[in-house]
Amino acid sequence: MPELPEVESVRTGLEKLIKGLKIKQVTVLWDRIIAEPSDIRLFKEKIKNQRIESIGRRGKFLLFFLTDYVMISHLRMEGKYRIESNDVPISKHTHVIFELEDGRELRYLDVRKFGRISLIPRDTELAHASIAKLGPEPVRETLVLETFKNQLLKRKKTIKATLLDQTVIAGIGNIYADEILFEAKIHPARMANTLIERELITLYEAILLVMGKAVKAGGTTIRTYQNAFGETGSYQSFLNVYGKKGQSCPRCGTTIEKTKVAQRGTHYCPNCQSESQLIR
DNA sequence: GTCCTTTCCTGACAGC
DNA sequence: TGCTGTCAGGAAAGGA
Q1: A264 catalytic residue (yes or no)
Q2: Does the model's pTM come out above 0.85?
Q3: From the CB of residue A11, how many other CB atoms can be counted at a distance below 10 Å?
Q4: Does the active-site annotation cover A3?
């Protein structure tokens, strides 16, 4: 499940592999992957002979900057890009094939077909609905402590749901939300607007720490995640609570529990992230 | 405006 | 063995 660190690792990989190449033509094997334009023929027509000038990222969205268009791609749960020679057989879960001028192909694979691709004119990307509403990236330069605190204090929902809300901060998904809350010693079901000053600052620092460390590690490989080189991330070796139900908390030894918060599987240490916080 | 629920999808796994 | 049911979950859309 690619979150910001995994998408960033895909981005840097793709830049090394296909930047500067021209797309000769595109084959779409599962129409629903293409969100825009709604007419698939138009998508294929427009992308023909476009050169991949660079590859950017905003939150969990990949942005392929082409000659005249920007291709916005979200991998959702299991989307991945592979570069293959055109004589390599098409695997079962390949849904979009971009033929490149050097005979290789950029292939989009997605077991669950949740990923979406949009092709829009250059320079309209920042105004595109999916991008425009995103909150700041989780780095010190863009995530301003005061703004962050104000955002949280007006949310009448759990802190876990708030961290997953892409309009508050861009790029945090289920794995890192659990890891961040463990780091900050805050219970995931705590209401965001009940956090006190000290907790808000601790949480802010935990976000920067966890996300920064995960980007450096090339992301986390839980199920099937691979970057463009087919490499896995290494952050899973730093995970403290995610997927650790029944194991000992690395901080206090208490057994890690799993519940459901904000409709998501949620892992936490019942001692470090105490329930008693909930009554405040 | 904010929050909550549903929808999209397939593979893995538990239980019978 | 083979079937059925449940779970995994990010974002968009629609309803409250």
Answers
A1: yes
A2: yes
A3: 20
A4: yes
| Residue A159 Cα distances to A114, A129, A171, angstroms | 26, 25, 15
Find out whether the peptide bond into A37 is cis, omega within 30 degrees of 0: yes
Nucleotide nearest to A172 (CA to C1'): C10
Identify the CATH class of A4-132: alpha beta
Active site residue A5: no
Whether A279 has a pLDDT exceeding 50, the answer reads no
Stretch A201-208: mean pLDDT: 96
State whether residue A214 is helix, strand or coil: helix
Residue A227 dihedral angles phi and psi, to the nearest 5°: -85, -170
Nucleotide nearest to A128 (CA to C1'): C12
CA of A72 to C1' of C8 (A): 25
Give domain A145-279's CATH number out of 2.60.120.760, 2.60.320.10, 3.40.250.10, 1.10.8.50: 1.10.8.50
Give yes or no for CB of A114 within 7 Å of strand B.
yes
Cα–Cα distance, A110 to A92 (Å, whole number): 9
CA distance A15 to A67: 15
Instruction: Tell me the domain boundaries of chain A.
Output: 4-132, 145-279
Quickly count: other Cβ atoms within 10 Å of residue A114's Cβ: 15
